[in-house]
Design a protein that fits this description.
Helix content is 67%, strand content 0%. The protein starts with 10 loop residues before the first helix and ends with a helix. Helix 3 crosses helix 5 and helix 8 runs antiparallel to helix 9. With 294 residues, it is an all-alpha fold. Among the domains are: 58 residues, no CATH class; 55 residues, no CATH class; 90 residues, Alpha Horseshoe (Serine Threonine Protein Phosphatase 5, Tetratricopeptide repeat), CATH 1.25.40.
Length: 294
């Protein structure tokens, strides 16, 4: 007779339950995922990810974090083999492409990695920052030609992205010294030269100086040099609210790229240099609320 446990369930019953859980897991990862991809009812996007989406990306994140690249490749292939593409795949295609870049790298397939990078890049600075970080890692591991090719692809897709230009200048000394010539704001998102209502356009000399300090900031970030980033931010910030907004914009991009520490440091500099500016105070409070208390 099977001995009974203190919780009232026999050991045999426990194994039956474990078997059922494993069977359910197998269903979700194989046929269940296929069924869900083709038979999911329309869902309000605000309701959060579906079960299939959570299971797929949870597993993919685990495989990428533990660098189990062959398993990660098979995991993606199973999704790509589905008869009907899940509706959530379009929304999260970027995460899939980023994993494919790393998988191709592990397979010594630089052409495949570059092709995945082209599909991943869309002109967004956050995506460019993520690939720039990967390129630095590749360069450090003596994958220099692949790293340079990746940064050149970033420059091609995001021409005004100063950190990529700065990194290429460091890696290729013969490259033209000033790829940003004629651009007063390396990370600006507008082509308009007009100032917002109520604000005046600064003199050309001041604009050139601001561009130089921003370029220093981006170059320091590309090199992983935090003191240089903060020093450049202090030179750039003058109490002017336009400049404060620019650094806050960069801080938001860094936060989105999971560089919380640097985002917090830059926001504190804005608050210190532009006291009484409500957007800076609010964003600092928001950032500090997300930092775990010691």
């Amino acid at each position: 007779m099977t001995p009974r446990r203190a919780d009232g369930f026999s050991g045999a019953t426990q194994w039956v339950r474990v078997g059922r859980v494993l069977a359910l897991a197998g269903f979700i990862f194989t046929g269940g995922l296929a069924l869900l991809s083709g038979a999911e009812e329309p869902v309000d996007a605000s309701a959060g990810p579906s079960v299939a989406e959570r299971v797929f990306f949870g597993r993919l994140d685990e495989l990428v974090q533990t660098q189990r690249w062959p398993e990660a490749a098979r995991h993606i292939q199973q999704l790509q083999a589905l008869r009907n593409e899940p509706e959530w795949l379009v929304r999260r295609a970027g995460e899939l492409r980023l994993a494919q870049i790393q998988i191709c790298r592990s397979q010594n397939d630089p052409a495949g990695a570059l092709n995945a990078a082209r599909l991943y890049l869309n002109g967004d600075d956050v995506r460019s920052l993520r690939l720039l970080s990967l390129a630095r890692e590749m360069y450090a591991w003596d994958e220099k030609s692949s790293a340079i090719a990746l940064v050149k692809e970033i420059v091609s897709r995001t021409p005004g992205f100063a950190p990529a230009h700065a990194l290429l200048e460091d890696w290729l000394p013969a490259r033209r010294a000033s790829p940003l010539a004629g651009q007063s704001e390396p990370m600006a998102r507008t082509d308009s030269a007009k100032a917002p209502p109520g604000r005046t356009t600064p003199p050309a000399t001041e604009r050139d100086e601001a561009a130089t300090h921003l370029a220093m900031l981006h170059k320091g970030h590309a090199a992983g040099n935090l003191p240089e980033v903060i020093a450049a931010a202090r030179l750039y910030l003058t109490g002017d609210r336009d400049r404060a907004d620019k650094i806050l914009e960069i801080a938001r991009e860094l936060r989105a790229a999971d560089e919380m520490r640097l985002a917090l440091m830059l926001t504190r500099e804005v608050v210190r240099r532009t006291p009484g500016y409500p957007p800076a105070g609010r964003y600092l409070a928001e950032l500090e609320a997300t930092v775990p208390k010691p």
